[in-house]
Each structure stands twice: as structure tokens, then as C-alpha cells.
Backbone:
């Protein structure tokens, strides 16, 4: 059977390759003029050598291609590169980056083309229900450049590999990661470059200094999330998942380091993360409490509505840096920039990022937030015309604050009931 | 009912008519020994009337607005206009009256001598009036505007202190389909009414609700006046007389308009008592001992006597007296024995008002509320 099938498969493949190459020849006559770089890159690629022509990826409907409807997404590539596709889909690159998108159907002045971020041609069903408030606050143009150019990695191999080249030299170079993994929110590129790993890489080469791919894409895997023990927002995974991931990372470290050394280094990173996480939570509690007492300026119901939650206070990963209060903007910087720099700096063994760009900023942010909270509290008492001292809260105000805390999960139902009982006793004591 | 039973009932009825000073109000069953029924006055059929707190003066409509001293029989015309609603102030010193004038209503306050003290004009037809201790008048009005595509219906609460312009609170506004508007236009004017709680901090009112493809009905809504928070406590047919509060304000009496009337805990969705009467007319004595439902007089939950089902009654807020309108006559039932309700401690009342507000806003649960009320009662 096999003896019969193999020649047939070989023959069919050859015919397809020849047909594809023949069709490519049709395209090239024009595209040498119109898109010379694309043709040059394809001609030098492994695809060209294997006889995989334009139509194999782009199809033959020139009308659709011209309208931008025949984009080569990862499903096209995955038809042949099955393992890479599976690895990619199991990773944060392949799953979590919907967080940079959102449905813009009901927003004014949007480019209809951006529907393709989440929808396949002709489908109303989105590929993901996850939405990002920060994306939804941007114009179409800003969303395309400022969000989609990175977040497109979920559905486009070209985000890293580029469109027509197949040279692995490009994607094995850590510079390719820098397009997205840099800047104030997650400067992995900068912190790796200036860490001992990065400086050794620059001075002694990859064999001595590991790069992004060495640790995050071991053995050429497309699963870049191997060994990561927290969410992209810096929240630690549950203990069981954390242990599995940690074991994966220790195996990678152990290729160069003694396991005990690696374990201790990563454990130090965990401790820094937990300590820093507690500071962020303290800031969130301060702001939540101000909101409960109506002391934010402006309060959420006096701002443009949050794209996903309306007029609610949002302090989680859908936190905004615009159309918000000053103290929330301080939290944004604390959480998205300085907390991220501290913990990622720690895991990348970069002293300056961990301390001066991260930890110091993080703690100064908390000072600023505490001071701003104090100012807001004082201001409310002054606005109420009751002098500079903060007036005593009435039982009703206390009940209202307590309910808001319970509603947003800041206190448990049992704590809520207990504290409410205490306040109701106060009522009994006052006519 | 068998022939013998009917005969016995007629004899009993005649006996009570005779015993009640030859009044023409048919009564069956046994009124308390001390009770007397007096024929008070001739009135416009279906018109409003109001008995003052002590049950000594009655205001009614008969060719205009009339006020009659029950003891002396002295009667005088206060206004040539026919009122749509009447209400005496709690101290009996002032009378509030509403006069419908086209799409508007004139609200007027009179002293006991019948002198007009103040007047205000509001839009819509005022169906209910109530006094608050602060001398403020609450007026519940229905506004209807008919268009080719249907009708706009609004229920409105006015607050009037007798000095400035009344303030307006919209309770509901809806659009009715043409067929619904045409069929129920007349009824809407009369079935939508309200009542104020004994603590003056809440109202219950009937909200007209017309779901698509189904017959319209009433939603009985409890509303806290200060917080503006509302809660649906029952539903009823358009024949029901809305709802009233129990003596202590902890329950609501509401008929379904068809079969039965229930005493409800509005927060616990609990039925405290049921009466086999549809609740097309409702009245409760001030200490809560007597309940008049569709002409049936209940004492402490047990039916003791019955007036005609179409009769409409109102107890004097001071207790002991009941005015009844049947057909074109107004009657007074006196000396209904009832211990007056114990006066509420002002501090306890203030705490209860506070709790009502918190309950309406969800700051305390019904369970918290009941616990606090029980503790206060200890």
C-alpha cells in the first residue's frame, strides 16, 4: 500500500509545486515592478526553493488580494508549519494578546478594516471575547500602529518572521523581540541588554550570554510562555500552575547554572514580586476607599464612561491612563510601568531596573498616592465648609462606604455583615 | 344561600336598620353594641368625602364643596366647584381639596370656616391627597395625552407647602398603544391612587402597566420619598383600589381586585394575612382594629358586619368613627370601640425612618431591618 501511495503523494506534491511556481511566474512579471522587495525576498526564501509560490499563500483571487481580504494569517502558515502553530497557540503570544484589542463596532469614526483584528472574513462571531479598554479609547490610526502592530502577533507569523523572508537568522536575533518588548511598560529588551546575560551576549556571544530565544524559546519552540509564573499584569499564577512553570524554567537555567543557584535566584525574584505586589494592592485600597467616599476628582460617574465598565471605578488590568483622576493616573504609572519594571528587572537579574527604574519609582509612587489621597480627603472637608478638620462620618455614610467595599469585593461577606452589625448598634445608641 | 337563610338575613338587616336610627344604609351581621349609624348628607354619586381627625366635621361634594358639622348638623357651601379629592390636615385645622379643570387640577387649602388660604395649579388629574406633619400636601396625579399613535400616560407626585409652587416628582411615564388607551382611558383616571405611610416617609401607589399582547394591570409600588428608591410589592387587576399601609406601616394591605386581599410584608415578600374579598375599596381604622374591604367590616381579622359592597368608607384618624358613602348618601358610623394607638416615641420614629431609608437603598437587608425593629421594640 505504502509502496503505491508514496510515489503518488510525491507526484501530487510536485505537480502542486510546479503549478504554484507557474502561477508565481505569472505574478512576478508585474510584481517585480510593483513590489520589488517582496519578490526579491521571496526569491531568496526557502519557500521559493521548495517551489511554494504566491498563490499557495495568497490564493488566486486578485480582487480579494487587492481589497486586503486575503491576508496571510497564521492559519495559512499553520497548514504546513503545524508544530510551530501548536506551540504558538499554547503561548501568551498565541492566546493572551487579544487583550490589546476590542470590538469597535459601536464606536464613532472607526476604520471598518480593523474588524479583522477579531473577525474572520464574513463572520460576526469574534475569535475572542476578551477586550482591552485602552485599545478602545484610541483612534483607528493609533489602534493600528500603537496596539495592533504588536498584538497582531497572535494571528500573524509575519509579526516576527516578516512577510516574505524565511531566513531564521532574523527571528533568532534578539533584536526582533525589541519591536514590542521595550519601553516604559515592559522593557525586557533594555533590561536584558544591560543585564549580565545581555552584556555577555554582546561581548562573548550567544554561547556565553543567553538571549531572549535561549530562555524563552528553548529548542526553537514557539511557546514563549514556558517557565513564566505570572500573568502579563504581574499577578502570580495559582500555586500548582506556578510550580509546573517554575520547574520548566529551572530546567532551562540548569543548562548553564547549578540548579540550586537558579532556584535561589528565581526565588529572590518571587520575593521581590510579592513585596512589590503588596505595595500596588495598598495603593489600590487607598483609591478604592476614596471612591467609596466620593472623594475622587472626578468621580467615575463624572467622566466619559469606561469603554467596558461604564461609570465604574476600574483598578484592575483594564485601568486607563486617560479620562481618569490624577490619583488613578498615578496608580497606572505605578502598576503598569514601575511594578512591571521592578519584577521583570528582578527576573532578568538587572540591578538598575529592579531598584532604580523599578522599586524606587514604585515606592515614590506610593508616597505620591498617599499624599494625593490626603489632599483629596482634606479638600472634601474644606468643600463641605467644615473647617480643616475632617468631619465625623455619620452612620449612614459609614454604611454606604461599607456597602461599596462589599460590592467591589474589598471586604468579605462575613466582614461586611459583622461591620454592618456594629454600625446598626450605633443607630440604636443615637436617637 | 337557602331561602330560610336569606329570610333570616333580611330580618337581621331590617333589625339593624331600625336599631341604627332608621338610616337607609343596609347592614348585615352584627356591629358592635355601641355603634350607631347616622344618615349624614346627600352627596354626588361617586364623589369624594373626608372626615376630620375627631370625626366631627365632614367635607363632601353636593352641588359644590360642602362642609358639615356632624354634631350640630350645620352645613355650609365652601366652593361652588366639585372636588375630586378631599383631605383634612392631621390637626383638623385645614382642609385640602383638588378641583379638576380640563387637563389641570386646582389645589386649594381652606381653614375650618371655609376660607380659602392658598391655591396652586398643577397639570393632570389629582386622584389622591395626603398631609404630612410638616404641613406639606402630597398630591398624586395622573396625566394623559392622547395622540393618533397612542397615549402618553404619566403618574406624578406633587409636594406643596401651601406657599410656593408645588414641586414635581415623576413616578412613571409610558406610552400606551391606541387600543389600550381607548379602552382604558376612563378607568385610568380613577384606579391609579396612592397612600402615605404612618411615618410619612413612604408611599404605596398603583402603577399602570400594559405589557404588549396582554391585558393591562396594576403594579403596586412602594416608594421611599427621600431616597426615591422603589420596590414592586404586588400586582392587581384594574378593579383593585390600590394599597394602603397597616397601622404601624410595617405591612401593606392590597387587594388583587378579583378574589382576595392580602396583608403583605413589602420587604419579605411574605403574606401575613389573607381576606376573601377583592379589595376594590379599602379602609383601615387608625389603631388597625377594623378593616373595611368591599363593604365588609373586619374586626381583628374576623368579619363582623357587611355594608353594601359598593360602599366606600373612611375612618376618622382619631378613631371610633367611620364615614361611608353608599349611592348618593353619606353615613356616619359612630362609637366603634377601639383603643387608640399608642403614640410613637419621636426618637424611635426617627430611628425607624432612618432604617426605612437604608432599607430602600439596600444599605441594610430586610433581615437587618427586622432585627433592628425587634431590638427597638424590646
Residues:
Amino acid at each position: 500500500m505504502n509502496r503505491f501511495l508514496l510515489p503518488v503523494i510525491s507526484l501530487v506534491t510536485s505537480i502542486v509545486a510546479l503549478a504554484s511556481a507557474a502561477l508565481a511566474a505569472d505574478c512576478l512579471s508585474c510584481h517585480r515592478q510593483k513590489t520589488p522587495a517582496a519578490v526579491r525576498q521571496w526569491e531568496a526564501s526557502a519557500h521559493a526553493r521548495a517551489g511554494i509560490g504566491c498563490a499557495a499563500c495568497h490564493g488566486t483571487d486578485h480582487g480579494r488580494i487587492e481589497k486586503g481580504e486575503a491576508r496571510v494569517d497564521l492559519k495559512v502558515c499553520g497548514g504546513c508549519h503545524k508544530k510551530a502553530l501548536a506551540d504558538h497557540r499554547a503561548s501568551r503570544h498565541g492566546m493572551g494578546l487579544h487583550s490589546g484589542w476590542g470590538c469597535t463596532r459601536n464606536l464613532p469614526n472607526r476604520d471598518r478594516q480593523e474588524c479583522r483584528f477579531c473577525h474572520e472574513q464574513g463572520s460576526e462571531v469574534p475569535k475572542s471575547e476578551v477586550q482591552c479598554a485602552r485599545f478602545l479609547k484610541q483612534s483607528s490610526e493609533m489602534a493600528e500602529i500603537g496596539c495592533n502592530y504588536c498584538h497582531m502577533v497572535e494571528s500573524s507569523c509575519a509579526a516576527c518572521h516578516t512577510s516574505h523572508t524565511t531566513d531564521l537568522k532574523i527571528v533568532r536575533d534578539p533584536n526582533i523581540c525589541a519591536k514590542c518588548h521595550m519601553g516604559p511598560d515592559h522593557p525586557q529588551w533594555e533590561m536584558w541588554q544591560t543585564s549580565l546575560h545581555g552584556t555577555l551576549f554582546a561581548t562573548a556571544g550567544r554561547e556565553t550570554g543567553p538571549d531572549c530565544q535561549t530562555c524563552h524559546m528553548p529548542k526553537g519552540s514557539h511557546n514563549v510562555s514556558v517557565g513564566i509564573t505570572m500573568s502579563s499584569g504581574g499577578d502570580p499564577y495559582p500555586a500548582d500552575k506556578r510550580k509546573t512553570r517554575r520547574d520548566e524554567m529551572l530546567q532551562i537555567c540548569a543548562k548553564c547554572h547549578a540548579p540550586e543557584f537558579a532556584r535561589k535566584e528565581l526565588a529572590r525574584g518571587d520575593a521581590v514580586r510579592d513585596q512589590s505586589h503588596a505595595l500596588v494592592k495598598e495603593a489600590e485600597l487607598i483609591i478604592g476607599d476614596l471612591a467609596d467616599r466620593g472623594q475622587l476628582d472626578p468621580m467615575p460617574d463624572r467622566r466619559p464612561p469606561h469603554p467596558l465598565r461604564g461609570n465604574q471605578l476600574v483598578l484592575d488590568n483594564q485601568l486607563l491612563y486617560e479620562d481618569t483622576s490624577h490619583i488613578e493616573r498615578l496608580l497606572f504609572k505605578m502598576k503598569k510601568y514601575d511594578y512591571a519594571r521592578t519584577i521583570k528587572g528582578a527576573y532578568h537579574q538587572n540591578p538598575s531596573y529592579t531598584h532604580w527604574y523599578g522599586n524606587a519609582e514604585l515606592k515614590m509612587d506610593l508616597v505620591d498616592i498617599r499624599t494625593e489621597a490626603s489632599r483629596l480627603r482634606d479638600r472634601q472637608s474644606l468643600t463641605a465648609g467644615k473647617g480643616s478638620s475632617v468631619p465625623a462620618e455619620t452612620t449612614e455614610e459609614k454604611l454606604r462606604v461599607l456597602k461599596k467595599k462589599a460590592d467591589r469585593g474589598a471586604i468579605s461577606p462575613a466582614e461586611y455583615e459583622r461591620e454592618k452589625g456594629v454600625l446598626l448598634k450605633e443607630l440604636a445608641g443615637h436617637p | 344561600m337557602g331561602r330560610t337563610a336569606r329570610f333570616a338575613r333580611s330580618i337581621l338587616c331590617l333589625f339593624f336598620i331600625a336599631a341604627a336610627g332608621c338610616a337607609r344604609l343596609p347592614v348585615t351581621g352584627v356591629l358592635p353594641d355601641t355603634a350607631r349609624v347616622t344618615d349624614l348628607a346627600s352627596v354626588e354619586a361617586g364623589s369624594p368625602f373626608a372626615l376630620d381627625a375627631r370625626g366631627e366635621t365632614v367635607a363632601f361634594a353636593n352641588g359644590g364643596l360642602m362642609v358639615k358639622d356632624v354634631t350640630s348638623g350645620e352645613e355650609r357651601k365652601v366652593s361652588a366647584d366639585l372636588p375630586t379629592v378631599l383631605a383634612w390636615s392631621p390637626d383638623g385645622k385645614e382642609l385640602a381639596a383638588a378641583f379638576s379643570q380640563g387637563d389641570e387640577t386646582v389645589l386649594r387649602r381652606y381653614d375650618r370656616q371655609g376660607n380659602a388660604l392658598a391655591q396652586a395649579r398643577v397639570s393632570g388629574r389629582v386622584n389622591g391627597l395626603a398631609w404630612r406633619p410638616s404641613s406639606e400636601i402630597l398630591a398624586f396625579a395622573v396625566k394623559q395625552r392622547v395622540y393618533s399613535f397612542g397615549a402618553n400616560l404619566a403618574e406624578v407626585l406633587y409636594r406643596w407647602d401651601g406657599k410656593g409652587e408645588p414641586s414635581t416628582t415623576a413616578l412613571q411615564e409610558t406610552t400606551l398603544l391606541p387600543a389600550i388607551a381607548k379602552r382604558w382611558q376612563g378607568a385610568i383616571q380613577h384606579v391609579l391612587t396612592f397612600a402615605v405611610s404612618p411615618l410619612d416617609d413612604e408611599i404605596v401607589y398603583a402603577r399602570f402597566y400594559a405589557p404588549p399582547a396582554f391585558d393591562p394591570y396594576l403594579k403596586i409600588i412602594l416608594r421611599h420619598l427621600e431616597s426615591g428608591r422603589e420596590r414592586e410589592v404586588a400586582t392587581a387587576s384594574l378593579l383593585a383600589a390600590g394599597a394602603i399601609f397597616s397601622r404601624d406601616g410595617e405591612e401593606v394591605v392590597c387587594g388583587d381586585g378579583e378574589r382576595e386581599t392580602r396583608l403583605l410584608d413589602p420587604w419579605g415578600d411574605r403574606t401575613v394575612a389573607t381576606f376573601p374579598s377583592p379589595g376594590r375599596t379599602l379602609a383601615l381604622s387608625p389603631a388597625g382594629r377594623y378593616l373595611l374591604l368591599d363593604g365588609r367590616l373586619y374586626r381583628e381579622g374576623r368579619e363582623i358586619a357587611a355594608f353594601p359592597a359598593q360602599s366606600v368608607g373612611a375612618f376618622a384618624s382619631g378613631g371610633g368613627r367611620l364615614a361611608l358613602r353608599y349611592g348618593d348618601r353619606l353615613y356616619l358610623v359612630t362609637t366603634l370601640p377601639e383603643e387608640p394607638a399608642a403614640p410613637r416615641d419621636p426618637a424611635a420614629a426617627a430611628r425607624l425612618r432612618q432604617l426605612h431609608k437604608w432599607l430602600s437603598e439596600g444599605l441594610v437587608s430586610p433581615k437587618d431591618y427586622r432585627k433592628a425593629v425587634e431590638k427597638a421594640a424590646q
In short: The mean pLDDT of chain B is 90. Helices of chain B lie at 3-19, 178-191, 346-360, 366-377. The radius of gyration of chain B is 21 Å. Chain B has one domain: 35-344.
